[in-house]
Design goal:
The protein is of the alpha+beta class and 544 residues long. 53% of the residues lie in helices and 14% in strands. The chain has 14 helices and eleven strands.
């Protein structure tokens, strides 16, 4: 439905515009005219005079249409043709602004393919059915004339189109559908389209559609020819590849027709069987041994029933009478209608494989013998191993008995050691108790008596040595450094007590140099030589 019924036309001279169509409504003469009407001679059958301005204008339009038809039908490139159509349409109607929409069926839209003047910047715009001038013409399938686009209710909501005034749309219509829309416009308020413009543009649209269909057909034919050439090129290349493959194949290959006549053999076939192509082509190849005919006939029957022959082993004869072991694979090939027209047979010389299989079988027999011998050896080894296992079990039983006995002995020894340790602790306790009760009291009483200094020193040494006897120092020192001499032990004990070298010499009745000599040996045996470690501090550490 065309939305423009309430649009008011600007005031115009009704006498000058008496042939104008109703505003925004489809024209009554929307159907494409017969192309014979475009010639000046058939344009009119009325009795109007040649001096009538209307007749002169129509004659000029018809001459222009005739020239346009000749120009359009010569165009082959579709894009160039569209440019020519809009140029000629603008010239026919006296405007500089126009466009062409073309239908894109897959998207259900029309797209602006060419634009002139005002519409040059609108290229690519798409409209759906009923949208804007293009969509309304598409929907109505008839011409639509709008006096002032700015106030037309059916206009597109785009401020960029505010400059349009009078606008006309003509469908590019065939018997089946609208293929596009030619639109022309004025941007000057003075410019207006009339009924005569519609009549001319309808005839022009019919010519333009013919030219477009011709260009489309030409493009389609050109594309199909190009695709056919590409297909033919691919077929030739494919044939060349297959021929190269057949020629370079190391296996003999022969192609038969359905009558069993050879139509092709490759070089490997000639080399393997000693037969040349001119001897084979166009003939049936007689190289099947008599004994192999039954199995060969059965294989041919299977192949003709549509089944492939794969890895079929048989024999074939060479030119010099040698019998070859061969492996055959064969398949039918069809023509374009799917009918079998022949078969391709590939033969593989398997003599080397047969020899290898025979050698492998012989080797297999030898391996069987070796396996039997090895099995006997293994059985004997297993028997000896079982004997060794039995002997080992008996030895393990004896070892377990001996181990139990040793465990009992170890238990007894641990009891004895524990008893010895207890006895040792008891003896140490007794010695300590006896010294404290039987010796220490008397030493204390002696110190309380009147003694000379020398005697007091001797008493202190005696008490100190007695303490050492019951302390762990001497035992540790003796047990760790068994290479100490008795004198070195006494010197080490006095050093530990804090005695100076002179005091040690007086107490031990030796010279001071002898004390220094023993101190040197003590440091050496303790690993303190050339080390800045105090000897007394080191000796005191043994009491910790």
């Amino acid at each position: 439905m065309v939305v423009c019924a309430n649009l008011l036309l600007p005031a115009v001279d009704t006498k000058a515009k008496r042939n104008r169509a109703p505003v925004c409504k489809p024209m009554d003469n929307a159907k494409p005219l017969n192309h014979n009407l475009i010639t000046p001679s058939a344009a009119f059958s009325t009795t109007t005079t040649a001096d009538d301005p209307t007749i002169q204008r129509r004659n000029a339009s018809l001459r222009a249409l005739h020239e346009t038809a000749l120009g359009l039908l010569d165009k082959i490139d579709k894009e160039e043709l569209l440019e020519t159509i809009i140029e000629r349409a603008a010239t026919l109607t006296g405007t500089e602004h126009g466009y062409i929409y073309l239908l894109e069926p897959e998207r259900q839209v029309m797209q602006m393919r060419v634009g002139k003047g005002f519409f040059y910047g609108q290229l690519g715009r798409s409209v759906r059915m009923g949208e804007g001038m293009g969509g309304c013409v598409w929907q109505a399938e008839a011409p639509i004339l709008v006096a002032d686009y700015r106030n037309w209710p059916g206009r597109l909501d785009d401020p960029a189109l505010d400059g349009l005034r009078s606008i006309i749309g003509i469908p590019l219509k065939s018997d089946k559908q609208v293929h596009g829309v030619i639109g022309l416009a004025h941007v000057d308020p003075v410019g207006q389209f009339d009924q005569e413009d519609i009549t001319v543009l309808e005839r022009f649209a019919a010519l333009a559609l013919l030219a477009l269909e011709k260009a489309t057909l030409y493009s389609k034919v050109t594309r199909e020819l190009a695709e056919r050439k590409k297909a033919e090129t691919r077929i030739r290349e494919s044939e060349q590849r297959y021929r190269s493959f057949l020629e370079s194949s190391p296996d003999p290959i022969v192609v038969y027709n359905m009558q069993g006549v050879a139509t092709y053999v490759n070089p490997a076939f000639e080399q393997t069987f000693g037969l040349s192509r001119h001897e084979l082509l166009g003939k049936q190849i007689d190289f099947v041994p008599e004994a192999c005919w039954p199995e060969t006939k059965a294989a041919i029957d299977r192949m003709q029933s549509g089944r492939k022959i794969t890895m079929f082993e048989t024999k074939r004869l060479t030119r010099d009478g040698r019998v070859l072991d061969v492996q055959i694979s064969s398949t039918l090939f069809q023509d374009q209608n799917g009918r079998p027209v022949g078969n391709i047979v590939t033969l593989r010389d398997i003599r080397a494989r047969k020899k290898a299989e025979a050698a492998l079988q012989q080797y297999h027999g030898q391996l069987e013998e070796l396996v039997q011998e090895r099995t006997a050896e293994l059985a004997d080894a297993n028997r000896r191993l079982k004997q060794q296992i039995e002997e080992r079990k008996r030895a393990e039983a004896a070892l377990r008995a001996q181990s139990n006995h040793l465990e009992e002995v170890n238990t007894a020894l641990r009891v004895l050691l524990k008893k010895r340790e207890e006895d040792k602790k008891e003896v140490e306790a007794n010695v300590l108790s006896n010294v404290k009760e039987l010796v220490s009291p008397y030493l204390v009483r002696l110190k309380r008596g009147r003694l000379e200094p020398h005697q007091e020193t001797m008493l202190e040494i005696l008490q100190s040595n007695l303490n050492n006897i019951i302390s762990p120092f001497i035992s540790k020192l003796s047990s760790r450094y068994l290479n100490f001499t008795p004198t070195e032990i006494r010197v080490a004990n006095l050093v530990k007590e804090g005695k100076m070298n002179k005091e040690i010499a007086e107490l031990l009745l030796i010279s001071k140099n002898t004390v220094l000599f023993h101190r040197h040996h003590i440091r050496t045996k303790l690993g303190l030589k050339n080390k800045k470690i105090n000897l007394r501090t080191h000796l005191l550490s043994y009491e910790e």
